[in-house]
Amino acid sequence: MQNTRYIGHIAALITIATWGTTFISTKVLLTGFQPLEILFFRFIMAFFALWLAYPQMLKTDKKQEPVFMAAGLCGICLYYLLENIALTYTQASNVGVIGSTAPFFTALLAHYFMRSAGSLSKQFIIGFFIVMSGIACISFNGAAMQLNPLGDLLAISAAVVWAFYALLTKKISSYGYPVILATRRTFFYGILFMVPALGFLDFELNLARFANTTYLFNIVFLGLGASALCFVTWNLAVRELGAVKASVYIYMVPVITVITSAIVLQEKITLLVALGTILTMTGLFISEYRPKKKIK
Question: Taking the CA of residue 148 as centre, how many other CA atoms within 13 Å lie in the half-sphere pointing to its CB?
């Protein structure tokens, strides 16, 4: 039992360390690709990688298919499309920090849609307002103190969509299917929902662009590392640690994103960005912290 928990912690660390840098790779690819193109190439690669890793069909109950479909729509298609478009309007560091609010929205949705979730504590509400203050600081980043509402709003919308995906994933994990097969089924529906949008959002196959080694490296990193590997390791972490403990690792995402975006993209870490990052992480910690009960 203890060994499996260690595996869960290692899986969570690998996932978050990778996901914290995906915003930078996506930002680099956006110089030559449309948001939907990045998304499509990334998950097509991830789907076939998982097929090669576990070439077996997943047989499910027909009543469970709508849950897989909804998970693919939310966690693969809508979440990443909103995130990628957000990156065309705002900095990678902004999207990384704002995206870390997903646990808040997950808790809110769980409170209203899951009977077992319990009531929202004062601690949670206080933490929520601190996080919103942090997001406000990040949104006002810049010498002229100009608000960038569209990019940041899209990033918040992505966090909300991810919250729905988190609840759907929890439901899927209760089915007891192998993690790789369940993840691959979710990818399949995510890609399926992308197809209708290909004709409307300037999609071009144009594989010649991958002759650029920078583009090739980043799409392979997103497809094989951040998608094929990390979706499996994240689901493994949730299974071994539980959704609450695994979500604690999400707090590391904004730190990794802000630091790597400053190093790779030369994005400036202004006073407001630093303050916003600190407020966001403090609010998340306050909201989710649960002191250990003393044994009498």
Answer: 23
> How far out from the chain centre does Cα 225 lie?
14
pLDDT tens-digit map of 16-59: 889 888 888 888 898 999 888 999 999 999 999 999 999 999 98
Which tokens is 16 given? 């978050």
- Please return the burial class of 11, using the count of CB atoms within 10 Å of its CB with bins 0-12, 13-18 and 19+: buried
Query: Please, what is the angle between helix 179-194 and helix 230-241, to 10°?
Result: 130
Do 186 and 52 touch, CB atoms closer than 8 A?
no
Length of the chain: 296
Distance (Å, rounded) from C-alpha 157 to C-alpha 83?
Answer: 9
Closest CA to 221 of 13, 20, 9, 83: 20
Residue 24's H or E segment, with its range, is helix 2-29
